[in-house]
Specification:
By secondary structure, this protein is an alpha/beta fold. The protein has a single domain, classed as TIM Barrel (Alpha-Beta Barrel). The chain is about 50% helix and about 10% strand. It contains 16 helices and nine strands. Strands 1-4-5-6-7-8-9 form a seven-stranded parallel sheet. Strand 7, helix 13 and strand 8 form a beta-alpha-beta unit. The longest helix has 25 residues. About 55% of the residues are buried.
Length: about 350
């Protein structure tokens, strides 16, 4: 599975495409079956690792993806978050940059990797790497972290983030640049501890929130610098409709791009499918959560037909998603190949 995942990201031929999730995988049923729970599993390394392993060992996803919420970088820079609940992740309560002048005070802390959230992620990586190796699983260990756009939006607040893109672009660019530097460095720490792939979650750079004409000047150089520095398999995840910036994203250096179902995968395949690995994009909310297993299978097969290179949910799996639907999602991949006479 690790070899298939790696070959897919590098756009090499595989016997069948991987089926996994590069976004969050914690569900209520998996928590019950592993005797773990949110919000403890957001920060406790043992609980986080146990719940992450269940995505493969119980649900059958071909990868171990963690964590289930990713506020650790903004927290280290002074952002305040709620603890989260048993069915919802933490949400942001406050941010340090109220005015553009505050941006000059944002620097990388000397004790960045001793901050509680990042320390927890590093410890979880150690645990997961050890368990995967001990059990002889040859599958990818996939970490998710917030990207430079998400960092800037968290540290400045979303309203400032949007206004400053027009009124204070220099201040915003400083935050974006700093976010890119921190993300690349943090990703390399996770690679060094055993993560195979790091997913940069950065929907705030996408057209649903950020003006598309500003994407190339403000984000493309940062993404290129990040991907050049990152030492392992890298993926960009973007919620919303990324259609207007697909060609720009393809120049960013990311091996894979995870797209929500708002982006037409067949179109994305035509436009950038030869350049990057396309990941997605069965709807986590409309299909996996709410529909029948047969409906989920049909959606998954349609994604394969549309040209995805890694079959995955379009966004984080909702906590109340039925386990049967996740298993149906996984089974759909082999069914597709069997029906096409490819297995």
């Amino acid at each position: 599975m690790l070899e298939r995942f790696t070959r897919s990201l590098h756009k090499k031929e595989v016997g069948k495409i991987p089926v996994c999730s590069v976004t969050q995988t914690g569900t209520m049923e998996l928590m019950e079956m592993t005797k773990t729970s949110w919000p403890k599993a957001f920060t406790d390394p043992e609980e986080m690792a146990a719940l992450a392993m269940a995505g493969y060992e119980i649900a059958g996803l071909e990868g171990v993806r963690y964590p289930f919420s990713s506020p650790e970088i903004p927290q280290a820079f002074g952002c305040a978050y709620s603890a989260g609940t048993n069915s919802s992740p933490p949400h942001q309560l406050d941010f340090p940059c109220k005015k553009p002048v505050n941006v000059d005070d944002v620097v990388i802390p000397d004790n960045l990797y001793e901050s509680s959230g990042i320390k927890s992620m590093i410890e979880t990586t150690d645990i997961l790497r050890g368990r995967i190796d001990e059990k002889g699983y040859e599958l990818p260990l996939i970490a998710g972290i917030l990207g430079p756009a998400s960092f800037a939006a968290c540290v400045a607040g979303v309203n400032n983030y949007l206004m400053w893109s027009v009124k204070e672009p220099d201040a915003l660019q400083k935050l974006i640049n700093l976010g890119g530097e921190v993300c690349a460095e943090y990703a390399n720490v996770l690679y060094d501890r055993g993560a195979d792939s790091v997913v940069i979650i950065d929907s705030e750079s996408g057209p649903d929130l950020f003006p598309p004409p500003f994407f190339e000047p403000m984000f493309l150089p940062v993404y290129k610098k990040m991907t050049n520095a990152m030492k392992g398999l890298n993926i960009l995840h973007m919620c919303g409709d990324a259609t207007l910036i697909l060609e720009s994203v393809a120049k960013s250096g990311f091996l894979g791009v995870s797209l929500e179902e708002k982006t037409d995968m067949s179109y994305a395949s035509q436009v950038i499918g030869k350049e990057v690995c396309l990941i997605g994009n069965v709807s986590a909310a409309d299909d996996l959560l709410l529909q029948s297993s047969d409906f989920v299978k049909a959606s998954a097969k349609r994604c394969i037909e549309d040209g995805v290179n890694i079959l995955a949910p379009g966004c984080g799996i909702a906590p109340y998603t039925p386990l049967g639907n996740i298993k149906a999602f996984v089974a759909a991949r082999d069914e597709y190949y069997s029906e096409k006479g490819l297995l």
